[in-house]
Amino acid sequence: MTNELHGRKVAILATDGVERVELEEPLGALLGAGAQAELLSLHTGEINARQMDIDPAGTFTVDKKVADARVGDYDALLLPGGTMNPDQLRTDRDAVAFVREFVETGKPVATICHGPWTLAEAGVLHGRRLTSWPSIRTDLRNAGAEVVDEEVVIDRQLISSRGPQDLPAFCKAIVERFANAPQPA
After folding, report:
1. What is the pTM of this model?
2. SS3 152
3. Contact 13, 81 (CB under 8 A)
4. For 61-104, what is each residue's pLDDT tens digit?
5. Which residues are catalytic?
């Protein structure tokens, strides 16, 4: 265990249908680097994870409803994928507002797979460079993003990856970027 992220608090925004490995592996990397993490969601209790969008893959306990969360309480944001997860988040006013406000602070935001759908809905992708799961790339281009097919893309505070196959590089990148982000006074 390292302490690169000691004193850093990361919000993870996800809901039912999250791709288990895209939440679990980055969470493990963040905790292993000394970060604190809170799972924010649309409801309290637990969220149901999936494997490959189809198979049930257990649950995660929600720490707080996104409607009750304050952007100022977190140093970074993680948006995991899975098809159903961001599709639900992007239709929730509180989730979209939280993501928009978070991006506007300049704090780091990491997203993988279908996760950028919520960024598109928040209207924060114009002029940004990122990657994603192939099936949502047209949506991201329509939101004004330059979309590329690379393992990890870093554009200012935005870190993105294509999917589960990129998790080792994604986890390494988010720990490094979150550790090097300015801490609030």
Report:
1. 0.97
2. strand
3. no
4. 999 999 999 999 999 999 999 999 999 999 999 999 999 999 99
5. 113
